[in-house]
Model the fold of this input.
Amino acid sequence: MTRTLFDRVWDAHVVRELADGVALLYVDLHLVHEVTSPQAFAGLKREKRTVRRPERTLATVDHNVPTGERSVPIADAVAARQVDALSANAREFGIELFDLQSPGQGIVHVIGPELGATQPGMLIVCGDSHTATHGAFGAFALGIGTSEVEHVLATQCIVLNKPRNLEARITGRRAPGVAAKDLILALIGKIGTAGASGHVIEYTGDAVSALSMEERMTVCNMSIEAGARAGMIAPDEVTFDYLEGRPRVPTGAAWSAALGRWQTFRSDATAHYDAQVRLDAATVGPQVTWGTTPGMVADITGRVPDPAQLATEHERQAAARALEYMGLVPGTPLEGIPIDRVFLGSCTNARIEDLRTAAEVVRGRHVASRVRAMVVPGSQRVKAQAEREGLDRVFTDAGFEWRNAGCSMCLGMNADVLGAGERCAATSNRNFEGRQGRGGRTHLMSPAMAAAAAIEGHLVDVRAW
Amino acid sequence: MVAPFVRHRGRAVTLPRRDVDTDQIIPKQFLKGVERTGFGPALFHDWRYRPDGSPDPAFELNSPDAQGATILITGPNFGCGSSREHAVWALAQYGFRAIIAPSFADIFVANCYRNGVLPVRLPATLVDALIRSTEGGVYEVMVDLEQQVISDDRGFSARFSAEPYGRELLLRGLDEIGRTLLEEPSIAAYERSHA
Ligand code: SF4
Done:
C-alpha cells in the first residue's frame, strides 16, 4: 500500500492501536513553556507521578517574559511566579531549561529547530498550537492542551485519532517581493480558517521545494490558522543542510545513519490524500489581513471588502463585525491605511532571514513619525546573530526598538500591548479581536511589508520599493 | 479525574458567531496563573464586561434568560486558535456542560473531552433551528451522550456522533493517564525497539 509522509511518521510512532483510527503514539520531543505547563506539573505531583523521559523534554520561557532589560527582576509578580514555577519544575524533574539568563532562550518554536532538536520523522508535541512549525522538517508536530501535556510528561505518549491528510500543492514562481508568509496567507484565504480542520496538511510542489528552511517554518507555522492539526514538508537537501552541524544533531557515522533514515520520510508518488488544494504561487501578491481572522485577507492592491457582497449570512455577519472592530469602511484601498505600531516578531517571522529581509527595507530610512515600531527577535541566538551582522544598528538607526527574545506583542501577555484603537502592522499569525491588546487592531503581513509600513506610516505595497 | 457525563438537561444560551477563538473565550491576561481554577468569572471577558468592568447588557450571556445556562449553542469553528486549555476550564467553571456547534477546532475538542465538557457537532441547519428556539425566552435542551441524541420538549430530536475515544473518557470519567500507564509493557517494548 502506498503511504504519505504523514502515514509514515504516524506508523513509526504507534505504540499500540487502541481502536479503529485511535492509537497510543510515542513522543520523541516534548517542548514545554511557562504558560501551559504549571497545572500539568502540579497534576503529576498530586498523583505522585514522574516525568518518564526528561531527556526528551525541553523547556523555555517565552510567552509572558519581558523583552526589555534582562538584568532586572520581572516586574509583573504574577508572570514571575509562572516563570519561577517552570524553573522549580524543571529542576525537580530533571528537565533542561533555557531560562531568561540563557543565551539559548527564545520562542519555543524558534529554539527547537535552532538547536537541531527538531528532526525529520519525529513526533513532536508542545502545549502550544504553533507547534506545527516543526513540521517544516518532516516531523509530525502538533499543539496539545495542558491535560495532554501532563499525559506526555507521565507516559511519553499521546492518544490521538488519526487525522486525515490534505495535500496543498503550491507550484510556480513567486514574484519578487512575495514572501512565504504571503503564500500561506493566500492559502488560508482560499480554504478558510476551518478549511483543513481534522487534517494534517502536507505542502508539496516546486514552490515549496524552492523555499528555504526558515521560509518552510513560516508556512507550516500557520497551518493551524487553516484549522489543520499539523503541517508537514518532506525533508530534502535543504533540510539536511540546515541541520548538519547543529548542537543536537548526530555527527559522524550516526549522521550518515540518521540521513539514511530521514530520506525515507516522504510520500509515495501515487500516495492517496483525503483532500487536495492547489495554489499557483505566481498569482500571489503581498497579502494583508483586513479583519479579525487570518482568513480575512486580501492582496495589498485590493480593497476592504463589502460584507453585503459575501455569500452566506454567517460570513456577512462575521465580516460586518470584523470591520466594525477594525474601524474600516468597505471599499477603502488597503494600501494607504494608516498605522500606529509595527511589530516585527513571533514564531512565524522572527528568524534571522526575516530580520535580514526587513533590515534591507529599512536600511538608511526612518520610521514614520506617527509610528512606534519594535523588533523582537525569535531567540537570543537570532538576536546575537543579527547583532554580529549589524542589523540591530540598521533597525535602531531607523527608529525601531531592539528587544530581547520572546512572544511579546504576538499575544501581549507581557507589557508589549496595543492600546484600544491602535492599529498595528504585525508579522505574527493571529489578528483576533484583542489578541495584541484589548481594542487593538492587527493587520498580518510579511516582514518586508511590515518594515515598509513602518517607514511610510501606512500599509504599502513593498513591490513598489 | 472528572465526573462522568452520561446525559444532561439544561438551559441553553446562544452565541451566534463563527470562529470564536480561544483568545475571546479566555483572554491572555488570565493565563498567568499556576492553578486550574478561578477562570469562570473571566469567561468571554472582553465581550462580557465593558472597559469599566461592568457587565455589557448587549452580550448574550448577560441576558436574564441566559442565567444558569449550561449548554452553549454557537457558530462554526468554535474554539479555534490557541491551544490554551484555560478556555475549556473557563467554560466548565462557568457552568457549561455541553457546547453545540456546526464545527469545532481540533485541539479544543481534545481539551473538552479531558474536562468533562461535551462538544456536539450538528449540521448548521439544525444548529440554526436550535438558535431560533432560544429566541422565545428560557429554553432547555437534553443532551444524551449514551444514545448520542439531542432533544427538547417541543419535539426536536437529532442524532450526533461523538469521537469514540472522547466519548468513553466522558462516559466513564476516566483518568486518562492512569489508563495509559496500564500500557507500560507496550511503551517499554516500543522504547527498547527504538533505542
Ligand atoms: S510567538 Fe505568538 S504564536 Fe508563537 S508561540 Fe509565542 S504566542 Fe504563540
Chain A has a mean pLDDT of 97. Residues 164-235+267-283 of chain A form a domain with the Aconitase; Domain 2 fold (CATH 3.40.1060.10). DSSP finds 15 helices and 19 strands in chain A. The CA atoms of residues 2 and 271 of chain A lie 5 Å apart.
